[in-house]
Write a sequence for this structure.
């Protein structure tokens, strides 16, 4: 794939559209849906020039994909209401298929819980107004991008998705005949990200090229030497583990995570975690059912590469209480069993098709559960001190093709522990008899 | 008042009337639980690996965990893996339930204060009961995976991974204490057909023709009225198709009896998530669906429903299921269902079909996709109506999904040169000179 990474974002900053009228839009939406106090009219013409102007574009294997996230103004122009306020992020997408095969846009790869167009149209319906409702449906349908893109043709339109904040991690999987052409684009969410922030990330990515490891053993040593943990701003104390490392193109990492329903959803609390003197570059969350508390992945681009691939240092955590946390609790604490969430993320990503291999390296602090419990002020989590290293690829693999790396032999270590436990159990059993 | 408020008010009235007249039964049925879950083990073997499983009832959970897991919507599934292979296997919990509960999260539910001794005791107890990877050569490992609560029947999918190796086991298990609309039915042809009624297809063209000749739609019980379109064909069964569905979050529905109806009504009223809502019976081959599945999204208002019938056809000896997929975009009152409520379905039924196909592309087991005629087209301007008078329109195609019991990556899925939209697969395939 060409043109990957944040460079593909085109450095388009905020559209600067004010969101001050959000309450008005919501009122209007409800009014339209319920009392019909205003008659809804489809716009006679839709001007998509502003979307096209700020769209980010990527090209791969004779296919070009462009995308832009709707601003409040775009929503108003298209729908006379701001869908953002209903928890829907509208994305404009154009696919130019210059390949020789028909392609099928897999919307579940963009968002496993995306919204169907008529689902979005439903609140715009009015009671006992069949003709009018049919027109509403027809309008929403007409805006939607077609799933099937014939060879040599172009399709553009809208996808209705769950929101990402700041920079959208937009995965577009195009299924062909026994082939897949995956794209990951990073269109900014209007009004939510500054040009400086994107510049900074691009510079980090560019700077990492200077330290490109080719040798596996040297790379592994470099990973062990990366910071053990995050710190608070202005302190050097361990405030959170760095328990995973992602290696691969930013596009490939993004595709795998988005396919498993991770969304870029940074929160103010994330800024308290610092590595390399800065807050996380990207923060993804995966919510539990019903919008409950989410697991998080805080990502920092590391100042090194491996055979040209990006290396990203990751803090994987889940909030204490998880899905059972009180809704009013808006300051999620890291659950101390950080190895469990590390294992959970790996298991989840194995189903993304985007993992090629994984292994473990040293480098994090080792803290036992007893230490944590006996010194509650000193430690905030416990761990075996290992980091999981995940290698991502572009061409998806099946579950039977993932390679286990023989680095730190965690698997063997666990296996030996399990075997010992097994023997102990048998001995206990014999003793009982 | 919003439409939902109106609906809630109307449903509240229905609930009150039901309560007063006693026409609703009392909530979830609590049957006689077996005392030992290991007495009802289901076991299967693949080569040198053997897997057994059993699902706990609510009272068994309470007894073993010392906490009312069912009340929190958690259901422990006991799994034992006997590994006589020469490689180490790891069990992947998301295969059993993409939204499973880690042991520590379940412990949090019963002892919210993470620093308390009670929390530590819960956590250690739950961790001790949990299934612990890995399963080394020659060893046997057993323990619980904490899944979302299923009532009636549970689909248990056990995915085991090793370096460059994979094994999959699938079980349909009864959950004691509940009942489901298909609990006692079989999933084999023998339950419905005589051996000479089964027709095995090995020729693609003949199979395609047979699929096109299927009825367009489901019917009512008497077979006098057409309902939703039969827009889905699944080639595969317990070993391959159902595991794929489980991995993508599909699970069986609860029975359509009044207890579940009342729970659904309560759910609509409160706006709370309820994993189940009743799926009313529709008819094909003169009988209601063998299996009704659903995939809940964020609320009861956002669900996808799937009904499946086992057909008298096989394709290269694999089962062929015929079905109907629809997407709810709301819930509404109706006088056309004895349950008084029904799902407002997305009238663009092709959208729901395409969404299912696209989603199952990520299931690992889907290896081939085709589209055939047979539903009959209906336009938006002249829609057809289902049995609860919901309009729907369609391009008239049914999706045909072929499954195998080993992983196929996204980059290996084959698209059959059958039917499709204008400019679609047939035309493209013809351009390439494909058959």
């Amino acid at each position: 794939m060409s043109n990957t990474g944040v460079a593909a974002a085109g450095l388009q900053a905020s559209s600067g559209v004010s969101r001050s009228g959000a309450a008005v839009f919501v009122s209007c939406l409800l009014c339209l849906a319920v009392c019909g106090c205003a008659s809804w009219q489809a716009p006679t013409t839709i001007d998509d020039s502003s979307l096209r102007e700020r769209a980010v574009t990527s090209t791969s294997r004779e296919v070009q994909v462009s995308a832009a996230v709707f601003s409040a103004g775009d929503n108003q122009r298209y729908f006379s209401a701001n869908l953002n306020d209903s928890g829907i992020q509208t994305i404009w997408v154009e696919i130019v298929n210059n390949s020789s095969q028909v392609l099928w846009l897999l919307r579940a790869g963009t968002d496993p819980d995306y919204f169907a167009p008529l689902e979005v149209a439903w609140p715009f319906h009015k009671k006992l107004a069949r003709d009018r409702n049919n027109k509403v449906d027809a309008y929403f349908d007409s805006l939607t991008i077609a799933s099937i893109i014939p060879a040599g043709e172009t399709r553009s339109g809208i996808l209705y998705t769950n929101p990402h904040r700041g920079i959208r991690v937009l995965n577009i999987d195009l299924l062909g005949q026994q082939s897949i052409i995956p794209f990951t684009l990073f269109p900014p969410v209007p009004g939510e990200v500054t040009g400086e922030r994107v510049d900074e990330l691009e510079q980090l990515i560019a700077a990492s090229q200077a330290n490109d490891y080719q040798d596996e053993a040297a790379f592994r040593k470099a990973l062990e030497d990366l910071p053990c943990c995050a710190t608070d701003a202005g302190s050097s104390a361990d405030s959170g583990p760095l328990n995973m490392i992602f290696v691969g193109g930013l596009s490939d990492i993004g595709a795998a995570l988005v396919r498993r329903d991770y969304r870029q959803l940074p929160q103010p609390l994330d800024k308290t975690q610092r590595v390399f003197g800065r807050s996380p570059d990207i923060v993804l969350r995966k919510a539990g059912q019903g919008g409950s508390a989410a697991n998080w992945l805080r990502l920092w681009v590391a100042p090194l590469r491996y055979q040209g691939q990006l290396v990203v240092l990751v803090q994987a955590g889940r909030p204490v209480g998880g899905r059972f946390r009180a809704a009013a609790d808006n300051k999620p604490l890291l659950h101390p069993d950080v190895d469990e969430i590390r294992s959970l993320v790996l298991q989840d990503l194995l189903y993304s098709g985007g993992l090629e291999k994984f292994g473990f390296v040293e480098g994090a602090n080792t803290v036992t559960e007893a230490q944590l419990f006996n010194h509650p002020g000193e430690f905030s989590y416990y761990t075996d001190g290992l980091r999981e290293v995940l290698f991502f690829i572009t061409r998806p693999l099946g579950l039977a093709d993932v390679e286990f790396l023989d680095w730190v032999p965690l698997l063997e270590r666990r296996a030996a522990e399990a075997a010992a436990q097994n023997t102990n159990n048998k001995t206990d059993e014999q003793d009982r008899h | 008042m919003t439409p939902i408020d109106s609906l809630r008010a109307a449903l509240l009235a229905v609930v009150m009337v039901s309560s007063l007249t006693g026409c609703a039964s009392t909530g979830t049925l609590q049957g006689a639980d077996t005392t030992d879950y290991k007495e009802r083990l289901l076991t299967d073997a693949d080569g040198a690996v053997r897997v057994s499983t059993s699902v706990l009832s609510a009272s068994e959970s309470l007894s073993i965990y010392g906490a009312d897991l069912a009340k929190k919507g958690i259901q422990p599934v006991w799994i034992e893996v006997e590994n006589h292979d020469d490689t180490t296997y790891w069990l992947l919990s998301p295969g059993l339930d993409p939204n499973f509960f880690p042991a520590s999260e379940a412990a949090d539910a019963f002892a919210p204060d993470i620093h308390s001794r009670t929390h530590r005791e819960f956590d250690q107890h739950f961790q001790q009961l949990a299934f612990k990877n890995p399963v080394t050569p020659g060893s046997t490992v057993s323990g619980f995976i904490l899944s979302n609560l299923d009532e009636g029947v549970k689909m248990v999918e056990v995915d085991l991974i090793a370096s460059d190796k994979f094994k999959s086991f699938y079980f349909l298990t009864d959950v004691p204490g509940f009942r489901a609309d298909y609990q006692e039915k079989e999933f084999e042809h023998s339950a419905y057909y005589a051996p000479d009624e089964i027709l095995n297809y090995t020729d693609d063209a003949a199979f395609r023709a047979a699929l096109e000749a299927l009825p367009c739609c489901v019917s009512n019980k008497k077979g006098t009225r057409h309902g939703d379109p039969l827009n889905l064909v699944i080639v595969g069964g317990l070993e391959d198709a159902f595991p794929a569905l489980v991995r993508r979050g599909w699970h069986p529905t609860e029975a359509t009896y009044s207890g579940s109806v009342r729970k659904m009504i309560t759910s609509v009223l409160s706006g709370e998530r309820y994993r189940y809502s009743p799926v009313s019976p529709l008819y094909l081959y003169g009988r209601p669906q063998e299996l009704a599945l659903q995939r809940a999204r964020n609320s009861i208002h956002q669900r996808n429903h799937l009904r499946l019938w086992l057909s008298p056809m096989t394709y290269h000896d694999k089962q062929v299921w015929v079905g109907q997929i629809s997407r709810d975009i709301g819930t509404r009152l109706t006088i056309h269902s004895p349950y008084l409520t029904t799902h407002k379905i997305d009238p663009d039924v092709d959208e729901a079909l395409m969404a299912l196909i696209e989603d199952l592309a990520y299931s690992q087991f889907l290896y081939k996709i085709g589209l055939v005629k047979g539903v009959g087209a209906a336009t938006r301007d002249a829609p057809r109506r289902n049995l609860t008078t919901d309009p729907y329109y369609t391009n008239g195609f049914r999706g045909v999904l072929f499954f195998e019991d080993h992983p196929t990556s996204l980059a290996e899925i084959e698209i059959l040169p059958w039917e499709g939209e204008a400019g679609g697969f047939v035309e493209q395939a013809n351009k390439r000179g494909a058959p």
